[in-house]
Amino acid sequence: MRFKLTLPVAALLAISGVAAAQDQAAGGWRAMSYYNFQIPSTTDPLQTLVWPDVIREANAYVTTELKRSLGGKNALVTALASTYRDGSRTVIVSTALTRACDSGANDKGAEIEPSTCPLRIVTIENGKVTSIKSDTGCYTDHADPDLPAKNRNDSSYTRYDPIAGTISFRTTIGGRDVPSCARVYSLK
Q1: What span, in angstroms and rounded, lies between the C-alpha atoms of 134 and 89?
Q2: What does DSSP assign to residue 2?
Q3: Helix (H, G, I), strand (E, B) or coil at 21
Q4: For residue 39, what are the contacts with CB-CB under 8 A and spacing of at least 6?
Q5: Residue 11: in which H helix or E strand, if any?
Q6: Is the per-residue pLDDT at 25 higher than 80?
Q7: How many of the other CB atoms lie within 10 Å of CB of 97?
Q8: Of 20, 29, 71, 104, which shows the fewest CB atoms inside 10 Å?
Q9: Above 70 in pLDDT, residue 22?
Q10: Is residue 48 packed enough to be buried (19+ CB in 10 Å), middle (13-18) or exposed (0-12)?
Q11: CA–CA separation, 166 and 23 (whole Å)
Q12: 54 and 35 Cβ atoms separated by less than 8 Å
């Protein structure tokens, strides 16, 4: 999928998450940050550029199918995201926990495992969205003190390689890498 949208660079850089992004050389793994979209935002690029359709679908499901009022909030949609700046280019990689995820076993004897969820990579150059790529990626619960001790540091990680033009993705559960979650996405 390919889009051309204009978004002022100043507005992008003022947004938390993007403003915190640093120029990256091919480097180490970075834990993805957790985001909750229940509070609507017109300036958050994750809500306005990356996941607006998913938020709309979740809101419609709650109001139409479940017949519940959202009271001005969004339905519960959460995401993990990493943002990288490389000169005039910004790359956002994000996976969202939605009803479309394959969440695996769900009984009291099951081990914690990642969900396979929609993943999107958005590339913004000179204030314009130049591409949005869709795939799947692993989603893990963010640090939660209610998780078993061995799972309190579970996380998904990304690494940006500007020379190769790739984003690498991996997930750890219980202190071990999950081989099925290891992926490399081309930005080209």
Answers
A1: 19
A2: -
A3: coil
A4: 73, 74
A5: helix 9-14
A6: no
A7: 21
A8: 71
A9: no
A10: middle
A11: 15
A12: no
SS3 106: coil
Helix, strand, coil in percent for the chain, rounding step 5 = 15, 40, 45
**Closest of 78, 80, 77, 79 to residue 32, by C-alpha:** 80
Give the H or E element holding residue 52: helix 52-60
Per the CB < 8 A criterion, the answer to whether 121 and 133 are in contact is yes
Compute the distance between CA of residue 170 and CA of residue 150 in angstroms, rounded to an integer.
Answer: 18
Per residue in 131-170, pLDDT tens? 899 999 999 877 677 777 887 788 899 999 999 999 999 9
Which residues are CB-contacts of 161 (< 8 A; sequence separation ≥ 6)?
Answer: 26, 167, 168
Q: Which residue has the tokens 């579970």?
A: 154
- Unique residue bearing structure tokens 């929609």: 118
The continuous run of DSSP H or E covering 121 comes out as strand 115-125
φ and ψ at 57, to 5 degrees?
-65, -40
Categorize the per-residue pLDDT at 40 as very low, low, confident or very high, splitting at 50, 70 and 90.
Answer: very high
User: pTM for the full model?
Assistant: 0.81
CB atoms within 10 A of CB 118: 20
